[in-house]
Recover the amino acids of this structure.
């Protein structure tokens, strides 16, 4: 080949670098409208979770009080992020009147919907507004978009603030389950022999105990359950499927040439496992993790529904459903959180399915 | 074959010992004990004084550390005795015997319905693959699969027990029977069936959606293979190709799935039985955990794990029957 030709090929190569696996997968994923819709919904939920206090709340997003700027709405994320000056000045959680009374110069930007997820909004708390209806009068209306529960707490606010929990449950518990599963499966698949014997038995044992029962027993053992402990328990029981898949992938990949090459260069076991094999085994493992997020949300929902969820006042969608169990005529307590859980689970399942079709070469052949 | 079975059974026994040991340790580490939880919650005045409680604990053998309790439990189990429930004052085997019927009524019917409907649905879906009607049913099934049971149960309760109250379509909200035990037999049967409609519906639809998608996915994999093209080329009709040539080759994964559904058949569903207050095994498990009734928890755990292991073994054995090429050894 002449010098000239070589230069041209190099230029062409530079202009069209060969696509990596993940960008190729993304190209394929983007072609599926339903998958993109589901991904959009998950992003929307993330947005709602991040900005929950600005969407529904009774604390100003930003306010100027006695010459300083404050962000009291952050108190919904963490009590201590709400400036102590409001406790000192005896606001007792009601801002609109107190702000004007204690500092006529003050101004505030309010959340889109003035409702609180943890308590009933009282009469004239917002000047000129009526008290939240309670019991069977709390139909959805202009002020309470999704109605109110039997104590007069707004359901829309509860749902918005519960989004944070629904998303966290999915990510935290599946992050934990994914780490345990990948570690156990990688050890068993890579080393084989007695290590595999032990890890496979361990997986089988956890699979044999009914998950919900194991979770209920663990929750009973953990005194003072919090949402974080619930997430940890869901994660600690949900890793078996991932472990089995990882093990199968590692069994397959440890005999390939690139692993042998890595070993020949003197790479240690840990380096081979996590730098060489794991990136190649990641795509098939990522799919059950996505489905796992959906099922973790379901499990948290059913736990809260059975009354074993995080204690009040944590606002979770499942706990709204739980309160509906004894008040079936209040249909709005069932419909809105029920549809919320359903859509979230559906979205994660669809994302998982899209991911599977985008990364599994066998399914790709099928479409040709 | 015998050597294989023997090895599987021995391994299974080891697994069983580890499982029961874990669950026993877990159960005994839960705060409180059957006496305090049961009596203290219902009526504070009936709370036992410490000496009585100590004596009762000694009677039940709960005063010793849990590893000793476990050894006592398992040596009784080997003699075929699952012990007596502490809170219900009945032998655990009798308790399980009472609860197993209602559970199998629900889950057995549901299992039958799912397979009865899922196979035609799966065949239909792959026969009409990609057309509008198939895509629509596929979407509906997918949505059903993602629909949480506890939400569906509440929806059904609202529709059939609240909105349709006092109409022909009203269905009972919970329980298994409203009639007393001296009512005529057929009336009682009809009443139980009436009560079972909603729980059966709830237990059927999720599995149905999952199974029919599973069947369709397996069929799609088989349909691409060469022998299907050959069958078409020799002039076999589309249904014959689908049922006779393709479907028979998807039986292996279906058999595995069937084997894995064995524990659920007898174990029941905690959530569904809890929502509809159905007196079955799932509810018994839930209650025994809440009451810290160790013998019942252990009896149920043992049963579940035995069934799971047997289901896995059966699936592996059926493999070799459905597909003679597979050799279990």
């Amino acid at each position: 080949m002449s010098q000239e030709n070589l230069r041209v090929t190099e230029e062409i190569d530079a202009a069209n670098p060969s696509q990596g696996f993940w960008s190729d997968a993304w190209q394929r994923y983007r072609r599926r409208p339903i998958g993109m819709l589901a991904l959009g919904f998950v992003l929307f939920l993330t947005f709602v979770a991040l900005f929950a206090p600005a969407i529904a709340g009774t604390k100003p997003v930003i306010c100027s009080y006695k010459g300083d700027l404050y962000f009291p709405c952050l108190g919904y994320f963490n009590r201590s992020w709400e400036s102590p000056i409001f406790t000192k000045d005896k606001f007792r959680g009601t801002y609109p009147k107190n702000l004007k009374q204690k500092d006529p110069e003050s101004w505030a930007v309010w959340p889109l919907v003035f409702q609180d997820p943890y308590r009933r909004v009282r009469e004239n708390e917002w000047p000129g507004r009526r008290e939240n209806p309670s019991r069977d009068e709390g139909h959805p209306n202009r002020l309470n978009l999704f109605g109110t529960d039997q104590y007069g707490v707004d359901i829309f606010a509860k749902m918005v603030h519960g989004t944070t929990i629904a998303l966290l449950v999915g990510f935290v518990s599946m992050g934990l389950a994914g780490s345990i599963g990948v570690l156990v499966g990688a050890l068993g698949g890579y080393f084989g022999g007695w290590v595999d014997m032990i890890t496979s038995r361990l997986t089988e044992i956890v699979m044999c105990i009914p998950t919900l029962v194991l979770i209920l027993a663990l929750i009973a053992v953990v005194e003072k359950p919090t949402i974080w402990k619930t997430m940890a328990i869901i994660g600690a029981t949900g890793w078996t499927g991932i472990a089995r898949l990882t093990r199968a992938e590692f069994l397959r990949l440890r005999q390939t040439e690139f692993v042998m090459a890595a070993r020949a260069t003197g790479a240690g076991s840990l380096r081979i496992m996590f730098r060489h094999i794991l990136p190649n085994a990641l795509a098939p493992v990522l799919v059950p993790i996505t489905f796992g997020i959906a099922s973790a949300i379901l499990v948290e929902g059913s736990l809260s529904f059975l009354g074993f969820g995080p204690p009040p006042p944590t606002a979770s969608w499942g706990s709204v459903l739980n309160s509906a169990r004894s008040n079936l005529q209040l249909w709005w307590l069932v419909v809105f959180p029920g549809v919320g859980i359903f859509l979230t689970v559906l979205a994660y399942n669809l994302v998982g399915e899209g991911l599977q079709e985008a990364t599994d070469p066998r399914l790709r052949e099928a479409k040709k | 074959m015998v050597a294989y079975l023997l090895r599987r059974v021995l391994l299974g026994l080891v697994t069983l010992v580890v499982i029961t040991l874990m669950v026993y340790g877990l159960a005994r580490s839960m705060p409180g004990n059957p006496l305090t939880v049961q009596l203290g919650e219902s009526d504070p005045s009936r709370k036992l004084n410490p000496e009585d409680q100590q004596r009762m604990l000694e009677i039940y053998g709960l005063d010793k550390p849990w590893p000793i309790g476990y050894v006592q439990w398992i040596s009784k189990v080997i003699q075929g005795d699952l012990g007596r429930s502490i809170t219900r004052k009945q032998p655990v085997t009798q308790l399980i015997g009472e609860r197993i019927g209602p559970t199998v009524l629900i889950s057995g019917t549901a299992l039958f319905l799912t397979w009865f409907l899922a196979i035609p649905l799966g065949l239909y879906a792959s026969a009409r693959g990609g057309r509008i009607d198939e895509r629509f049913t596929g979407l509906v099934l997918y949505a059903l699969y993602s629909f949480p049971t506890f939400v569906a149960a509440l929806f059904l309760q609202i529709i059939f027990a609240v909105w349709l109250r006092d109409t022909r379509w009203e269905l009972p909200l919970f329980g298994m029977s409203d009639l007393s035990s001296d009512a005529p037999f057929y009336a009682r049967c009809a009443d139980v069936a009436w009560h079972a409609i909603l729980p059966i519906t709830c237990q059927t639809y999720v599995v149905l959606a999952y199974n029919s998608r599973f069947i369709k996915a397996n069929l799609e994999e088989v349909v691409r293979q060469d022998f299907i093209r050959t069958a078409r080329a020799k002039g076999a009709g589309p249904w014959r190709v689908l049922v006779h040539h393709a479907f028979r080759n998807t039986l292996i994964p279906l058999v595995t799935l069937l084997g894995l559904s064995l524990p659920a058949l007898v174990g029941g569903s905690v959530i569904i039985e809890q929502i509809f207050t159905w007196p079955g095994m799932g509810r018994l498990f839930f209650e025994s955990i809440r009451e810290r009734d160790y013998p019942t928890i252990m009896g149920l755990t043992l049963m579940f794990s035995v069934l799971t292991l047997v289901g896995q073994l059966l699936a592996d054995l059926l493999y070799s029957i459905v597909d003679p090429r597979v050799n279990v050894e």
Q: What stands out?
A: The first helix of chain B runs from residue 2 to 29. Chain B has a mean pLDDT of 83.
